[in-house]
Amino acid sequence: MFHQLVSHNEDIERLVKAGYAVAFDADLYLIVRDIPYLDHEGKLQWGAIVTKFVDRGKNLIAQHNHEVLFAGSAPYELDGKPIPNLAGGPTTLKLSEASKDVVVQRSFSNKPVGTGVFTDFFHKITSYVTIISGPAITKHGVSPFTFRMVDGGTSTSPFKVRDTLTSRAEIGDLNSSFKDDVVAIIGLGGTGAYVLDFLAKTPVREIRGFDPDIVHGHTTYRSPGRLTPDAEIGQPKAEMYQARYESFRHGLKVNRKFIDKTSVDDLEGVTFAFVCVDKGTSRAGIFDLLLSMGIPFIDVGMGLDRTRGALNGMVRTTYYSKEDGQETRAKGLAALVEDPNDLYRTNVQIAELNALNACFAIIRFKQLRGFYHEEKPYHHLLFRVASFKVLRDADTGHDSETAPN
């Protein structure tokens, strides 16, 4: 990745040829090490400049803004005063293990005189080095041009598009909590399709999707993303979703397969699962399999009908942990048998509620991994359409309350 970016970006190549110790931290940040500066006692110290970048595609990158981060203490002038015109302040940023020697301590903000905009990375880095390192170069005769090559680590990102969103938001440490996850999505109907869409953008190591059905006309109304009717209607859902997301990420395999209690080999190595099926008997077999294999999972469901002319009902999200899954199952929160009345009812599902159900499921999964904060642990969540209220078992104690399917 280093050589690709250097060869495709003239400004980065100029930095390397000038002798700066340039590196990239796991596809997320540009790092320039070996930056000399004076501390408050006038002693020589060495720091590093870290800056974000924007992916322009085809191995071209651009500046995110005029600011930089700095691994080091505050730099000082020859007279012992802090270097002026370096706005910003104390901050932290956790880099990858390969860059653990770079400990970010502060941010700097200094716009170039006149335009207020750096023309490129060469202009930006040389400007900051002149300000930060000038006193140290004068006093100690040192140079930032060390021509040092530093391995920034091989990117372990599953994405085929460089994930600069993570670097801009500074959440690389949180995203690392998903790096070992192998996640199964069982059922790619209305809610399952949105779970896949959200999970595809989550840096889990592997996603396995399962659905035996083909794409029908009604499928398209509850399917995220684009649609090519002539090419996709009538083909297996597995093939459609594989084609839709494989250009975005590695580690994706969508299978045209029905999962039941005998499907042990298909789920070998899975660390978490989402169950997105609407038949009680199918759900029962899947529960048997997941609980027997010790795989924690989230089951989703929706029950809608017409009340006074308008649709009403509930959306359900239920978590079955590895430790308490059997106990949660015994509460009867999800239907595990077929309701005879379902033969005479219309199974109403609406795209925005399918997407909302998937949102609840993905957010809960990310809470379990520590990505989102969680005030109180909970297993069962209901969203009521009419009242627009969300009820959790930890808040209400209504463990027995459930939505159809």
Structural class of the secondary structure composition? alpha+beta
Give the strand order, joined by hyphens, for the main sheet. 10-9-8-11-12-13-14-15
Supply the number of structural domains: 2
Quaternary organisation? single chain
Average pLDDT for all residues: 89
| Principal-axes shape call | elongated
Give the secondary structure arrangement, pairings included.
Elements: H1 2-8, H2 10-18, E1 21-25, E2 29-38, E3 44-57, E4 60-63, E5 67-71, E6 87-90, E7 106-109, H3 121-140, H4 164-169, H5 172-175, E8 182-186, H6 190-200, E9 206-210, H7 229-232, H8 237-245, E10 252-255, E11 272-275, H9 280-293, E12 297-307, E13 310-320, H10 325-330, H11 351-368, E14 380-384, E15 389-392, H12 393-396
Parallel strand pairs: 8-9, 8-11, 9-10, 11-12
Antiparallel strand pairs: 1-2, 2-3, 3-4, 3-5, 5-7, 6-7, 12-13, 13-14, 14-15
Outline:
With 405 residues, the chain is of the alpha+beta class.
Summary tags:
28% helix, Rossmann fold, seven-stranded antiparallel beta sheet, 405 residues, alpha+beta, 12 helices, elongated
